[in-house]
Design brief:
This protein has 10 helices and 14 strands. It is of the alpha/beta class. 31% of the residues are buried.
Amino acid sequence: MDILQIENVTKRYSAHTALSDVSLAVPEGSIYGLLGPNGAGKSTLIRVVNRITLPDAGRVLFQGKPITDEDIYRIGYLPEERGLYKKMKVGEQAIFFARLKGLSRREAIARLKTWFIRFGIEDWWNRKVEDLSKGMAQKVQFITTVLHEPKLLIFDEPFSGFDPINANLLKQEILRLRDEGATVIFSTHNMASVEEICDHITLINKSRNILSGSTDEVRRRFGENIFEVVFEGATERLRDGLKPYVEVLDEAAVADSSLNQMRIRLNDGVSLRESIAAANEAVELRSFREVIPSMNDIFIKAVEGKL
């Protein structure tokens, strides 16, 4: 079941079209990556979902029904442009945001204490917000976004400003929230994070959805029939043996071993089975694996119109 459906959404600002007939569906219980270069329309789409702005055409469905203002209480949203009241104490600031989400003061304090311990910031409860580092402030904002246990979480560039250790902590928390039943959408430029944790992606460019699908399916869809062969034996023998079947892209010795490796592209109409058989006749094979393009490669080619 899809928790969120966006159907033919268009949004214009004067002469600028921010979104043009964008459609996508977010499966319940998934982590969904919303990708695209700066100015592509990602943040506008997130604002439409959160009813901060309304579309000029199209509609948004939440759990199968047109989204309403009441549904927003079941969504947690962490915008890219974040801010805390600098003169407030950290704990009171967090309680304030929790109360806005409908929690009682008692329930807010209990949940916040658990989260502060989990994120290692419990000693900062009575310190002023202005004393927080950027990363610690972002932890507080993340906590206040997820505290009311919403069904749908939307993060706009959640890893921005985090060092690798805290970025990894955030990834683990996002995975845990997904495993506990939440659906997560996040907008990011971090392609490594997409490959690590996203189940599905949509790529928006120049206000349009140009690519959607499961992460694995998208990567395989744009594979270029390239394989890496690791073997023991002479590279000349393997090159000669594969000559009728493949184009050799490059070759090199494997560091600290007696093995060699070669990257090849299968010729059109050639079966993988006969290529492996020919390689096995020429040398002693150790591995023969497909080279799947990274999300970063796909992102660049899609934005440049080269897919």
